[in-house]
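Hi again,

Forgot to attach this to my earlier email, sorry! This is the prediction with 2-acetamido-2-deoxy-beta-D-glucopyranose bound. I've pasted everything inline since the attachment limit keeps bouncing my files.
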Amino acid sequence: MGPLTPLAAALSVVATASATASSFNLQSNWGNLSPYAPSPGFTLPSGNPIGCELTQTHILHRHAQRYPTSYLLDALSMEAFAEKLKNFTTAHPNTTLATGPLSFLNHWEYVMGTEELLPTGAATEATSGAWFWSKYGRTLYKAPAGMADWSDDLNVFPNGTQRKKPMFRTTSQARILESARWWLSGFFSNVGANNSYPQYDLVIIPEGDGYNNTLSGYCPAATYPG
Ligand SMILES: *[C@@H]1O[C@H](CO)[C@@H](O)[C@H](O)[C@H]1NC(C)=O
Ligand SMILES: *[C@@H]1O[C@H](CO)[C@@H](O)[C@H](O)[C@H]1NC(C)=O
Ligand SMILES: *[C@@H]1O[C@H](CO)[C@@H](O)[C@H](O)[C@H]1NC(C)=O
Ligand SMILES: *[C@@H]1O[C@H](CO)[C@@H](O)[C@H](O)[C@H]1NC(C)=O
Ligand SMILES: *[C@@H]1O[C@H](CO)[C@@H](O)[C@H](O)[C@H]1NC(C)=O
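Structure tokens for the complex follow:
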């Protein structure tokens, strides 16, 4: 591995610090901004008891990372606090707002909105759906070795007759509906990841003979003797 760039160096410093710090996990204490984490398991053994078969699985899943709600004790109180600081600074332009451990408040800006599912929440849901497919869906639908993704062909009764589509339930509230859709995209392997196609141009450089593809490890023009 080559020399660390400043960003990589900073990241590795952070990683070292958190690995050696106490068991306090900052990310799991962010409330509504915390990523989903599976429960520690209630000390129950995991896996199927020998000789048993999975015939159904149940999951009740909360929406993932979101902005605070516009409830008085949630976003409203934080917005009011930010406004209070701003009012103070405006009224006392030449006074230092805070010192010592609170001096970060001198540059602090409140940037959160309300209610919406965040991009990190969408990613959390997709990951969770993919994880659930891998851990339970494959077993339930008896996906054969080598079949990575969900297939309609698996959705049959033991006699081979096609079953009805699997059904899921969610609510109409935007962040919850979006969470459900992202989760299902993970479960059903939206491998094309192509819903955002119209938003960007992607240059797809072919690999293989006849192309000097510098993104490929075996680009002929990038192989050196010795
Ligand atoms: C900030 O100042 C505005 C304008 O004077 C006022 O309407 C508002 O209530 C103040 N906000 C807080 C949280 O004190
Ligand atoms: C703040 O400081 C500036 C520059 O030092 C000065 O011109 C201004 O009058 C001061 N304002 C107040 C409210 O004291
Ligand atoms: C296959 O099994 C399902 C579920 O037991 C049943 O509803 C269906 O009628 C069966 N189909 C045939 C062709 O036997
Ligand atoms: C999305 O990607 C998948 C996998 O590459 C492809 O099979 C499918 O045709 C694509 N769908 C659209 C609408 O482009
Ligand atoms: C790939 O690079 C090599 C070495 O520079 C060159 O001889 C060859 O013509 C290039 N091939 C293509 C398809 O551009």
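Residues 93-94 surround 2-acetamido-2-deoxy-beta-D-glucopyranose (ligand 2) (CB under 6 Å). Helices lie at 6-20, 72-91, 119-140, 174-187.

That should be everything now.

G.
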